[in-house]
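Order emerges. One example.
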Amino acid sequence: MAYQTDGVAGEELGQIKIILNTLYLCIGYAIYHIAAHEGTESAEKFKSSMLSSLENGDIDMALLEEPKTFDLVISKIQALTVPVVDRGADES
């Protein structure tokens, strides 16, 4: 279960923002890692599958309850770019 933010303010809210930003950066890193080791097509499939799972509530049904939150999360994931990585250097 995800961390609940009801009644959180001040420094605790700042820490939650740091946590969420870090998790977002981790998702970006995962996409980069997949592209670097499995190829751009695999990274695109991963991102597409993740978006589909979010939109269908497969990852967290609570996301579907608040349209503003849903739109924010989906837009942030959509904004992640899949890099084109030269895998030739890794294979030698």
In short: The mean pLDDT is 88. The chain has one domain: 11-84. Residues 11-84 form one domain. The helical segments are 11-38, 40-56, 67-79, 88-91.
